[in-house]
Specification:
The protein contains eleven helices and two strands; from the N terminus they run αααααββαααααα. The protein is mainly alpha-helical.
């Protein structure tokens, strides 16, 4: 188990290193540097800059160095706990990242709090009677929802619930602080897309348990079906 965890951690670090290096290379373009200048100084100020002044601005920000040198410096800073400075957001990356992680944590909490019970209940109901109308209906809904990209689900929910019915705000920027109503659309989008995966896994596990010999024996002995499911099959399936 420890070896598996270490291997996964090494893979994660390598993926992050390759992805970050590619991003440094991709954004090492004059157009992107000009955009950073516009973001910080303003479009009019950048257009009024001479070439020497613009090169001085790049040198001051360290953007005149090749991307691999900036990447190496960035890695060294990260190892010292400094995540750098975002010129686009005009903030230190560390606090900015913590804010985003906190928002992600809030969203993930509500998604899992709703998705896990829903997925388990539907998966168990489908696996209890494999091949029945109940099973086929739940399986179809699970496959259908997971086959639609989140962006399409988000647009559909926004058009229907926000623009059409006016029940929910179309944006979730939380500009005026935390508002639970603004969290409903993002949560619904992720739950609708993701619950099908867990429901199908639960359904497969439940269906396998229901075909076990001890379950069949218990049913043939006359033990109530609900008791067999709740006390024996469900516990083993989960």
């Amino acid at each position: 188990m420890l070896k598996l965890i270490l291997r996964r951690l090494v893979q994660m670090v390598l993926i992050m290193a390759v992805a970050s290096l590619l991003l440094f290379a991709i954004f090492d373009t004059p157009e992107f540097k000009k955009r950073l200048a516009v973001q910080e100084l303003g479009g009019f100020a950048v257009s009024a800059l001479s070439e020497d002044s613009y090169q001085a601005w790049l040198s001051e920000r360290g953007l005149d160095a090749p991307f691999y040198i900036r990447y190496a410096n960035w890695i060294g800073s990260i190892l010292q706990g400094d995540l750098g400075f975002s010129y686009e957001k005009n903030r230190e990356v560390g606090p900015l990242l913590l804010d985003r992680l906190a928002n992600t944590g809030i969203l993930a909490f509500f998604v899992f709090a709703l998705m896990i019970p829903l997925s388990l209940v539907l998966g168990v109901l489908a696996g209890m009677k494999e091949g029945s109308v109940q099973d086929r209906t739940i399986s179809f809904i699970s496959v259908f929802t997971t086959s639609i990209p989140e962006i399409a689900t988000a647009i559909l929910l926004t058009v229907v619930l926000s623009l059409g019915l006016g029940w929910l705000p179309a944006k979730s920027a939380m500009i005026r602080g935390f508002e639970f109503q603004q969290l409903i659309l993002p949560v619904l989008t992720l739950v609708i897309y993701d619950f099908g995966y867990v429901a199908r896994m639960t359904r497969a596990s439940m269906a396998e348990v229901m075909t076990s010999q001890y379950i069949r024996t218990a049913i043939l002995k006359g033990i109530p079906y609900r008791r067999v499911v709740m006390r024996h099959a469900l516990r083993n399936a989960l």
